[in-house]
Amino acid sequence: LRKFLAPFWAALTYDATKAPNGCVWVRQILWALLWLKEFFSKSQWSIVRAFEYETYFAPEVDIEVTTGASPYRIGAWITVSDVIKDLFAELISETDEEVFNAKQGSRESQQAFESIVLLLALRIWRPHFARKRAVLRVRSDNVGALTVVSSLKGSGEALGLVASELALDLGKCEYMPRAAVHLPGVANGTADLLLRKFDPSKQQWSVPPLLAHIKPTLIPLRL
């Protein structure tokens, strides 16, 4: 809930808004109220935790999610106990552009796309770690996007929105992700190859050898 409470503290302590005595402006806290409503109205399991004995004392599962993004496309894959289980690679959608105020093909929107793909990956593959004791490493070559995952904070409209969505998603998990790992761009070659599928400047494309045996998942439409 801490992610959604900050605007209330700001409204209580910031005097420069010239609100009447004992009052705050609704616009200061409106979006926070809407997020809180979403959190509490989703379903009861948003605020209930069930820790099973077998799960708690079972060995931790090692899970790694690797993501990548370009001005045109996003992609990711997941490994469980060092075995690749799933992947996806898709174009930036019109919905992504509209919701996150980002433009496909624009390098100024790169930070937003790097965050969007992390949100989608953790949302799609949440069943792998939501009810288990897992060491979850989230790998990306974008430090800003990893900061959103590790602290649920982000500067700017797009990163702030992703941070709020992640707070909702991770609030439904019994166990939180334990690690966010920076992957230098030069070491993220497989992600680069995966994303070239939609590169308008490339004529030929094949699945990276590391991922060739996995059938890509079609991720749901973002509505």
Describe the structure.
With 223 residues, the chain is an alpha/beta fold. 38% of the residues lie in helices and 17% in strands. The chain is built from eight helices and five strands, in the order αααβββααβααβα. The chain has a five-stranded mixed β-sheet with strand order 3-2-1-4-5. A hairpin with a 3-residue loop joins strand 1 (61-69) and strand 2 (73-80). Helix 1 (2-13) runs antiparallel to helix 2, helix 5 runs parallel beside helix 7 and helix 6 (143-151) crosses helix 7 (157-170). The protein is globular. The mean pLDDT is 78.
Features:
17% strand, 5-stranded mixed β-sheet, alpha/beta, 223 residues, 5 strands, globular
In short:
The chain has 223 residues and is an alpha/beta fold.
